[in-house]
Fold each of these.
Amino acid sequence: MKVKVLFEARFKIVGVMDGNSCPAEEFLLEGEDDRCRLGLIAILEFLAENGLDKASAAWLHEANKQDRIYEFIKGPLRLFFFKGADGQIAVCTSGVRKKGSKADKHAVAQAAKLRALYEAAMTDHTLEIIEDEED
């Protein structure tokens, strides 16, 4: 499994790679709601410097307690993640525009699957970290 560093200061926020692309990074950089996307980026930059324990309750929510999947929140946008290891405080999987009162079940299920793959890669020491734009 490969992850890409999205934000790095005292802590790393990484995104899971899907082939040569990073869905979380693409979500942050493309599409509508520029103000909300910029707000999500500002939240992630703050958390890379200060850690998840400094996060405002308004910034994140537990999307699925059993699978330990969370979501960053800014307006109608949700960026799904799970807590990582070795200084990787958040491993982002995908983002969606929230349309209902519940978390997107497909996005949560995909994030849970990726969390299991991430944990296996950490155990097997096969996690590859991409530090910059060059793969």
Amino acid sequence: MNDGFVNEEQLRNYINNNDWNTYNANIKELLKFTFGNKLNIGLTFTAEKIGGQVKPDMAITHNGTKKYISIKKGSGNSVHQEKISVFFPFIESLFDLNTLNNLKLFHYGDGTLDDSGKIRYSASECQTLYSSEIASLNKKFNEWGKLKIFLDRFLFVGNVSSTLIVDVIYHGNINSGIWASRDELYKYFENNSFSSSALHFGSLTYQVWGRNNDFKAVHPDRRYVMQVKWGGILNDLNKIKESRNYE
């Protein structure tokens, strides 16, 4: 079983139907943060798995309130994957055809807009070849009104209509973790600049799941899937924690 899924299961089992006094200091702090003035240490907490193509991994119910948690672990976290057959029309609807064409140039990386090129370039080569197109995309993607839409799609809601929206992102395991609320993350991404030559949404980066540059990939279909990574997740969560401690 995937290590991330094992971690999620362990967290759920640890929190589910246990009394306050059984929890360690880390989980107590998470629950205090998550439930705020709804916290009643005399009442139990129930934790359940959330399945399907939504962003929360776990729901915790306590004192008549349900909160949705997204659980992360490790570094270089991939936080979103989507077929370009879905993502490309979304980009055109959000911006225009010219913006979509710039993205296609970077994604296909073969000098064409329809994946018909005979030579495919690496991600780093594309970053050089299409630097002006990437700069234009970054300017559009990181305007706050649009960036917020991307954050919802990649971190909090997903690309399907859902009422299951992440309240808290938690990075860690039972014994040690760091977290931030959705509102804290909105504020952080809105109030900080994230300059980069990579194609990015704040500190999240866009990549092709598998470019298949040599036309010999075991999984050639991965060329048609976009992926978003959050390599700086711990740095971002730590900065939010620091600012929270000063308030």
Amino acid sequence: MKLQCPPRHWAFLPSRESNSASSVRLLTIMLRRYEMLVPLVFNDGTPVPETLLAETFAELRSQFGAASWETQVLRGVWEQEGTVYQDNLTKFFVDVPDVPEHRQFFTEFKHRLKQRFQQLDVWITSHPVDVI
């Protein structure tokens, strides 16, 4: 699978130092990476069908024009109320402009992922991205 970086989003604004139309400065729109961890095995021990993973990837790709999927198994262990749980996970991520509409999408997407993967919670994190 070929991973792609999203195109940079540029804006040209007049410089504060001059009112001249020829004096512009180049600004970049801040990007934010959203990462989603989803299970490879349902809570009852049955494997998650590849079609559900592909559906998740396709939905992200359709929404944002690009998406990435780390296919190695991420192993996690956590404890709740004295019970130890072990997870086998995969990670999807996208880099998008840091705007409220995208955060709202992921808030709603989380609910769909919880239903799709039959989970009490799905871990979605975000952080700023500085592309060099």
